[in-house]
Amino acid sequence: MYDVSTRKRALALVAQGRSLNSVGRETGISRAAIRSWQHRLEPLPRMTTPDPGPPADESAYAYLLGLYLGDGYISPHPRSGGYYLRIACADAWPGLMQLCRETIAKVRPGIGVYTLQKQGYGMVTSYSRHWPNLFPQHGSGKKHERQITLEPWQQAIVDAHPWEFVRGLIHSDGCRITNWTTRLVGGERKRYEYPRYFFTNKSDDIRQLYTDTLDKLGVEWTQCARNGNPFNISVARKASVALLDAHVGPKH
Predict the structure, then answer these.
(1) N or C: which end of the chain has fewer CB within 10 A?
(2) Domain with 107 in it
(3) CATH number at residue 240
(4) Are residues 130 and 72 in the same domain?
(5) Same domain, yes or no: 204 and 182
(6) Domain tally for the chain?
């Protein structure tokens, strides 16, 4: 027999997303016992966790918001009432994956963050009951199939930290590439290369958030089709590229 506090501790560990094997090893309680507590007819009273309030680091939140709108989603835990925040980061950008983990920890100090390895990418994951409070854009279906707008408090953070927001969006759904063209100079055709930023997202609302922020920062942009895809925002003018290089830079 286990006392109530022992049962609560085991179930709280499971609610954090831990496996039954992991909780069993840490507590010395059998998987069968933990599973029976999860499914018994009269469950223990659920421990309540106070809402921790606004993000601890607003600059980090602006960046994480950009990552979330690009490559993130929130899913409910099937039993605990909590939620997983998941941000997809390609294996090609290990620095981005580490930065994502560090950013989540800044937004919610002390929270657990781990990476689930998938084919070709890692899913940076964190469990909390309060992720939907921090990302009220959470909802059923794909982001480009529903309206995406910022709450006034989110817009205030983006206005205070616009470059971090743009950086998060580009690090998720953007890239810095080198284009080239040829020109006839003195009868000789010469090749010229120039850098360019792209941001691609199917959501009209998310692209609007991106371009509105670029406008406030004085970055010139154009909307264009790329590989037949019309959902692209390009920044190619030299001065604007220099601004993005100074504040965003390529992924690594």
Answers:
(1) N
(2) 58-161
(3) 3.10.28.10
(4) yes
(5) yes
(6) 3
Q: Are 197 and 235 in contact (CB under 8 A)?
A: yes
204-223 pLDDT, tens digit each? 999 999 999 999 999 999 99
Burial of 57 (0-12, 13-18, 19+ CB in 10 A): middle
Strand order in the sheet with 188-200: 174-185, 188-200, 229-235, 222-226
**Which tokens sit at 146?**
């529903």
Q: Answer for the pair 9, 27: CB distance below 8 angstroms, yes or no.
A: yes
Give domain status of residue 52, yes or no.
no
**How far apart (Å, rounded) are the C-alpha atoms in residues 87 and 219?**
27
Cα 75 from Cα 40, distance rounded (Å): 24
In a domain? residue 176: yes
> Is residue 46 situated within a structural domain?
no
pLDDT tens digits along 141-185: 889 889 999 999 999 999 999 999 999 999 999 999 887 777 777
CA dihedral 140, 94, 114, 48 (to 10 degrees): -50
Cα(248)–Cα(252) distance, rounded to whole angstroms?
11
